[in-house]
Design goal:
Layout (H helix, E strand, L loop, with lengths): L2 H24 L12 E7 L4 E7 L4 H5 L12 H10 L8 H18 L14 H12 L4 H20 L8
Antiparallel strand pairs: 1-2
Length: 171
């Protein structure tokens, strides 16, 4: 019965994902592209509730969203930095040991300087989820839910009228 709402929630999820991707790019958190390309969403339609769940398959997206709010530096694995260096083609002429040493230096610098070097209170590079939600509200992305709910109720009441039965439960 919830087809109108489900359709609208899918549209809203698409918009929210696009907004989060744009914000992440603007915040310069899209070095490899993995974070922005790893969003997925699911609309679960149950008997009493319809749930929209937007997630990211990377294991570090919550740290990026909370960037700057940790009391200590960001911890990144050396192997992840090595892969990033290779993907970005920043290893020109280095052998494996030099690449690893370079990656270790980057990891150490991240652990010591980020986010405290740029100020823990600087939230311009964090909260992409909340920012996307606020932009969506300003753009009226959620407004279509009112119409979808109205259509859903109209269809349901038409169904009840045709069947001739109405059960009302007050709890």
């Amino acid at each position: 019965m919830a087809k109108f709402i489900e359709i609208e929630l899918r549209k809203i999820a698409d918009e929210l994902v696009k907004l989060m991707q744009q914000i992440i790019i603007k915040q310069k958190h899209s070095a490899s592209g993995t974070l922005i390309n790893s969003f997925n969403y699911r609309v679960n339609v149950g008997k009493e509730i319809i749930d929209l769940n937007i997630d990211n398959s990377t294991d570090y997206w919550e740290k990026i969203d909370s960037y700057g709010s940790y009391g200590r530096g960001v911890s990144v694995e050396v192997d992840v930095i090595v892969k990033w260096l290779v993907v970005k083609r920043l290893t020109g002429g280095m052998n494996a040991n030099e690449i690893k040493r370079y990656a270790i230096n980057i990891v150490n610098e991240l652990a010591e300087e980020y986010p405290t070097k740029f100020g823990r209170g600087d939230m311009s590079r964090s909260n992409f989820v909340e920012k996307a939600d606020l932009i969506a509200q300003k753009l009226g992305v959620y407004n279509s839910l009112d119409l979808a709910l109205n259509n859903e109720m109209t269809e349901y009441l038409t169904f009840i009228k045709e069947e001739g039965v109405i059960d009302i439960f007050v709890g």
